[in-house]
Design a protein that fits this description.
heterodimer, A: mainly alpha, Cytochrome Bc1 Complex, Chain C, 19 helices, 7% strand, B: alpha+beta, Rieske Iron-sulfur Protein, 9 helices, 13 strands, 38% helix, extended
Chain lengths: 524, 357
C-alpha cells in the first residue's frame, strides 16, 4: 500500500471520512459571477479573523490614561488611553502592524459591502423563495451582526473620530423612552465617556459577536448544502437538477483560488491606501471635533437618517421628554430593516406558490419585485448620501440647507419614481424578449423585393436562446372568490389587492401556438 | 376586472397539471415550450490546441513559483525596511513593501489555482439530481411516531404539573443573570441626577481649553470666540476630567451688545457687555458644536449640521436639534476675570427621558 493509501485507511477507520468524500466530493456547484458575492463575504470574514487575531496580540483594550511615548512625534507626551496608545504602537512601532490594521479595516469594509451586494443578488433573482426563506433570515441577521462588528471595532482605538461616534450612539440611547438613561449608564459604566466602554466593546467585538457570526455562517452554509445551490435558467436546466462543476477538482480550485485573490486585493489596498489614520485625529476629547466627520460607509444610512430630520421635533408629555428627532429615524430604520427581513415571507403569502424554486428569476421577469428592490435601494441611497451632506455641500459649492432639503424630498419621492421607472423598464424588456422570440432578431441584411420594397431580413433565434427567453415564472392576479363558507374575509381581500399590485401588469411568456402563428404570418 | 377573470380560468387550468403542490398565482400555460436540453458541449481552446494547453500549464506553475517569490519578498522587506523612530517615510516603505510582497504571493497563488481550474482541468460539466427538501412520507411518519412514543413514555402532555414546572423553571433560571448585569453601572448613583448638573458653580472662573488659563473680559475683542472649560478641570484625574468636560465644555463669544436679542429679558443679565457663554454640547446627540461662523453669528454642529443663532439665545435655526443650547450665566469677578454666576439652569447635551422631571 502506498503511504497515502495507508494514511487514508488509518483516517477512515477512525472517522468514517470516506462517506463524506463520497457524498460531497463530486457535489455539483453551478457557475456564475454573481454567486461569487457570497464567497467574497465569507472570505473577507476569514481575512478579518486572521488579521484581527494578529491585532489582539498587541492591542490593549483599556482606557487607563498613559503618556504616549512611541515614535509618532506630533503626539509625543500627549495624555491618552492605553487603547489609543497601543493602536499608535501597532501603527508606528511594529513592523507590518499598520499593514495588518489596514488589512483588518479594508476587509471589514469589504465584508459588509459583499454581504449587501450578495443580498441584492439574492433579492433580485428571487433566490429567497421556498425553500430558502429561512436562509434569507439567517443572512439578514449576519448583515446586522456585520454592522455591529464594524461599529464595535471602529470604536476601539478611542480616537477623536470614533469617540464622537460613541457620543452620537450615547445621545441616541438616552433619548429612548423609559429605559434610555439606564441603558446608557449600564453600557458606559456610568456617565459618558467613563472608563469602561472600550473594554466592554472589546469583549463584544472579539468574543461574543464573532462567535455568533461563525455560528450563523455555519448554519447558512449548511442550508446551502441541504438546498443545493440555485442556478440561472437555461437550456437543460430544470427545477430538478443542478448543472455545474464538481467540488473536486474544479470547484475546489476555483473557489480556493478565489480566496487568495480576494485576500490579495485586500492586501494590495492595505499596502497602498491609508484607512482610518487615527494619529491625525488624536485621542478622544469631548470638546474638539473635526469638520467633515464621516462614519464607516455601512453606518452612513443611520447617520443620514438623523441628519434629515427637521428641527424642533421634541415634545413634553406627562412630564417626560419625547425626542422625536431621534425616535423617528430609529423607527424608520427599524421598519426598513423589518421590511427587508420579512419580504420573502410576504411575497410567498401574496403568490401562495408552495412549489420549491431552484431556478432563478431574471429580474425583468419579476417586474414588481425588481421595482420594489429598486425603491429600497433608492431609499437606502438617499439616507446614505445624507450622511455626507456637509461634504456634498462643500465639494459642489452648494448650500448645506439646499442639500438637506433636496434629500428630504428625494427620500419620499425617489423610491416612488424608482419603483415606477424600474417596473416600466422590466415590462419593456419583457416585451422586447417576446418580440425577439416571435419575430426573430434583426440580421442587418437589407433585401430589395421585386416590387421595389426594401426589407430587413429577420432570422429566428435557435431553440436554446429561445428557451432562455420563454422559460420564466408567470403569475396572474387571483380572482376574489368566496371561501367554502361563502365569505370573503378581509385577509382574502388584502391578498387579492396585493396580488393585483404585483401581477396586474403582466407579460406572459410566448407559447408554442403563438410562436407558430407568428411564423405562419411571416410566411404569408 | 376582465383581466382577473381570465387569470382565474388560467388558474383552474393550471392546477390540474400538478395537483399535489399549490401553485398560487403562478400560471402554467398548457402549450409552453419544452426544455430543449443541453446545447452541444463547446471545447475550450486548450482542449483543441495542445500548444495552448502547454502554455496554460506553464502559466499556472510559473504563477505558483511567482507566489513563492512574493512571500520571500515580504520577509525580506520585513528585514530590510525597518521602522526607524520618528521617520514616517520608513513606516510608509515598511507597509508598502511587506504589503506588496504579500499581495504578489496571494494574487499569484489565487490566479494560478483559478487558471488551473478553468483552463487545464477537465472541462466536464456535471449534473446532480435534486430531491425535495422535505423528508419522504415514511420518514415524516416515523418522526411523528417517535415524538408520540416519547410523549407517551415521559407523560409530557399527560403530567401537566411536571411539564409546566419544567417550562416555568426554564424561564426563571436566566433571571439571576439579568440581575448580575446590574453591576455594569455603578451602584448608588442616580443617572438622572448626575446628568442634570455640571461642574459649573457660582464664582468658578472660565478658563481656556485646554490650557486652563483664566480669561479676562478684556481678552475678548468683538467677534472673537473662546473654547472654555471650568477652572480646576485640568487638575482632575484623567477619567473624571473627560466625564466633567463632556458636560461642562462652553463656547464663549463676544458680540456687540446691541446685536443680542433677548426673548427672555432676564437672560440679558447672564451676559456681560456682549459676552455670552453657551454650552458647547449639542442638544441633538451631544457632539461638540465647534464651528462658529463669525459673520452670521451661527454655531454649526459638524456631526449633523444643526445650526444655532447666538444672537437669539442660541435658538435652533436649522438641522435636527430640537432645543437651543443652554446658556451659562456669567459675570466678572473683582479682578476682572469672567466667572459663572451659577451652574446651567437646565441639563446640557442630548435630551433624555427624565430631563424635564
Amino acid at each position: 500500500m502506498s503511504i497515502t493509501a495507508k494514511a487514508s485507511n488509518y483516517l477512515d477507520e477512525r472517522t468514517s471520512i470516506s462517506g463524506a468524500v463520497k457524498e460531497f466530493g463530486r457535489k455539483i456547484f453551478p457557475d456564475h459571477w454573481s454567486f461569487l458575492l457570497g464567497e467574497v463575504a465569507l472570505y473577507s470574514f476569514v481575512i478579518i479573523l486572521l488579521s484581527g487575531t494578529f491585532l489582539t496580540f498587541f492591542f490593549q483594550a483599556s482606557m487607563t490614561p498613559v503618556e504616549y511615548s512611541g515614535s509618532y512625534v506630533p503626539l509625543k507626551g500627549v495624555e491618552m488611553s492605553a487603547a489609543m496608545s497601543s493602536t499608535l504602537d501597532i501603527s508606528f512601532d511594529i513592523r507590518g502592524g499598520l499593514l495588518m490594521r489596514q488589512v483588518h479595516h479594508w476587509a471589514a469594509l469589504l465584508f459588509v459591502s459583499a454581504i449587501g451586494l450578495h443580498m441584492l443578488r439574492v433579492f433580485f433573482t428571487g433566490a429567497f423563495r421556498k425553500p430558502r426563506e429561512i436562509n434569507w433570515s439567517i443572512g439578514f441577521v449576519l448583515f446586522v451582526l456585520a454592522m455591529a462588528e464594524g461599529f464595535t471595532g471602529y470604536s476601539l482605538p478611542d480616537d477623536l473620530l470614533s469617540g464622537n461616534g460613541l457620543r452620537i450612539i450615547d445621545g441616541m440611547i438616552v433619548a429612548f423612552p423609559v429605559v434610555g438613561t439606564w441603558i446608557s449608564f449600564l453600557l458606559f459604566g456610568g456617565e459618558f465617556p467613563g472608563g469602561d466602554i472600550v473594554g466592554r466593546l472589546y469583549s463584544l467585538h472579539i468574543l461574543l459577536l464573532p462567535l455568533i457570526v461563525i455560528a450563523f455562517i455555519g448554519v447558512h452554509l449548511m442550508f446551502v448544502i441541504i438546498h443545493k445551490h440555485t442556478q440561472y435558467p437555461g437550456p437543460g436546466r430544470t427545477e430538478q437538477n443542478v448543472v455545474g462543476y464538481p467540488v473536486l477538482p474544479v470547484y475546489a480550485a476555483k473557489a480556493g483560488g478565489f480566496f487568495f485573490i480576494v485576500f490579495g486585493v485586500v492586501a494590495l489596498f492595505a499596502a497602498t491606501v491609508t484607512i482610518n489614520p487615527i494619529w491625525s485625529y488624536g485621542p478622544y476629547d469631548p470638546s474638539p471635533v473635526s469638520a467633515g466627520t464621516q462614519p464607516d460607509w455601512y453606518i452612513g444610512f443611520a447617520d443620514g437618517a438623523l441628519r434629515l430630520m427637521p428641527p424642533h421635533l421634541e415634545t413634553y408629555w406627562f412630564g417626560y421628554t419625547w425626542s422625536w428627532n431621534i425616535l423617528i429615524p430609529v423607527i424608520i430604520l427599524v421598519v426598513f430593516l423589518a421590511v427587508v427581513f420579512a419580504y420573502p415571507f410576504f411575497e410567498a403569502w401574496v403568490t401562495g406558490d408552495k412549489r420549491e424554486h431552484h431556478l432563478l428569476d431574471r429580474p425583468r421577469n419579476a417586474p414588481v419585485r425588481t421595482a420594489i428592490g429598486a425603491a429600497g435601494v433608492t431609499f437606502y441611497a438617499v439616507l446614505w448620501a445624507a450622511a455626507s451632506s456637509d461634504i456634498i455641500a462643500t465639494h459642489f459649492k452648494v448650500t448645506m440647507e439646499g442639500v438637506i432639503n433636496t434629500l428630504q424630498i428625494l427620500l419620499v419621492l425617489g423610491p416612488i419614481f424608482a419603483f415606477m421607472i424600474t417596473k416600466r423598464m422590466c415590462l419593456a424588456l419583457q416585451k422586447k424578449d417576446r418580440e425577439i422570440v416571435l419575430h426573430g432578431y434583426e440580421t442587418g441584411r437589407i433585401v430589395r423585393l421585386p416590387g421595389g420594397e426594401f426589407i430587413e431580413v429577420h432570422e429566428q433565434i435557435d431553440e436554446f436562446e429561445r428557451w432562455q427567453l420563454v422559460s420564466f415564472n408567470d403569475n396572474a392576479p387571483i380572482m376574489l372568490r368566496p371561501n367554502p363558507r361563502g365569505r370573503i374575509t378581509s385577509r382574502m381581500r388584502a391578498r387579492a389587492n396585493w396580488s393585483r399590485f404585483f401581477f396586474e401588469d403582466r407579460i406572459a411568456p410566448v407559447s408554442k401556438s403563438e410562436h407558430m402563428e407568428a411564423l405562419e404570418h411571416a410566411h404569408h | 376586472m376582465a383581466k382577473n377573470e381570465k387569470a382565474g380560468s388560467d388558474l383552474v387550468a393550471s392546477t390540474s397539471v400538478n395537483s399535489s403542490v399549490e401553485l398560487g398565482t403562478a400560471v402554467v400555460a398548457p402549450d409552453s415550450f419544452e426544455n430543449p436540453g443541453f446545447p452541444a458541449h463547446r471545447e475550450r481552446v486548450t482542449d483543441l490546441n495542445p500548444k495552448k494547453m502547454k502554455r496554460a500549464e506553464r502559466a499556472v506553475y510559473v504563477l505558483f513559483y511567482l507566489s513563492i517569490v512574493g512571500s520571500l519578498f515580504a520577509i525580506f522587506a520585513y528585514m530590510f525596511f525597518p521602522i526607524e523612530d520618528g521617520d514616517t517615510t520608513s513606516i510608509r516603505l515598511n507597509t508598502l513593501f511587506i504589503g506588496l510582497g504579500i499581495t504578489l504571493s496571494l494574487l499569484a497563488l489565487g490566479i494560478a489555482a483559478v487558471h488551473w481550474g478553468k483552463a487545464v482541468m477537465a472541462d466536464k460539466e456535471g449534473v446532480d439530481h435534486r430531491h425535495p427538501v422535505r423528508g419522504n412520507d415514511e420518514t415524516r411518519a416515523r418522526a411523528v411516531e417517535i415524538f408520540k412514543e416519547a410523549d407517551e413514555e415521559s407523560g409530557f402532555s399527560r403530567r401537566t404539573l411536571i411539564r409546566n414546572g419544567l417550562i416555568a423553571a426554564i424561564v426563571a433560571f436566566p433571571l439571576p443573570a439579568i440581575a448580575l448585569f446590574r453591576g455594569l453601572a455603578p451602584m448608588n448613583v442616580d443617572p438622572n441626577n448626575q446628568m442634570k448638573y455640571t461642574m459649573w458653580k457660582k464664582g468658578l472662573r472660565l478658563t481656556q481649553d485646554p490650557t486652563g488659563t483664566p480669561i479676562k473680559a478684556s481678552d475678548l475683542t468683538i467677534g472673537s470666540a473662546f473654547q472654555v472649560i471650568p477652572e480646576g478641570l485640568v487638575d482632575l484625574p484623567e477619567k473624571e476630567m473627560l466625564n466633567a468636560k463632556a458636560k461642562a465644555a462652553v463656547l464663549l463669544v463676544r458680540l456687540k451688545p446691541e446685536d443680542l436679542k433677548w426673548a427672555d429679558p432676564q437672560r440679558e443679565a447672564w451676559s456681560y457687555q456682549g459676552i455670552v457663554a453657551y454650552s458647547k454640547i449639542c442638544t441633538h446627540v451631544g457632539c461638540p458644536v465647534a464651528l462658529y461662523e463669525q459673520q452670521t453669528h451661527h454655531l454649526l454642529c459638524p456631526c449633523h449640521q444643526s445650526q444655532f443663532d447666538i444672537t437669539e439665545q442660541a435658538k435652533v435655526i436649522f438641522g435636527p436639534a430640537a432645543r437651543p443650547l443652554p446658556q451659562l450665566p456669567i459675570t466678572v469677578d473683582a479682578e476682572g476675570y469672567l466667572v459663572a454666576t451659577s451652574d446651567f439652569t437646565e441639563p446640557v447635551g442630548p435630551s433624555f427621558w427624565e430631563r424635564s422631571k
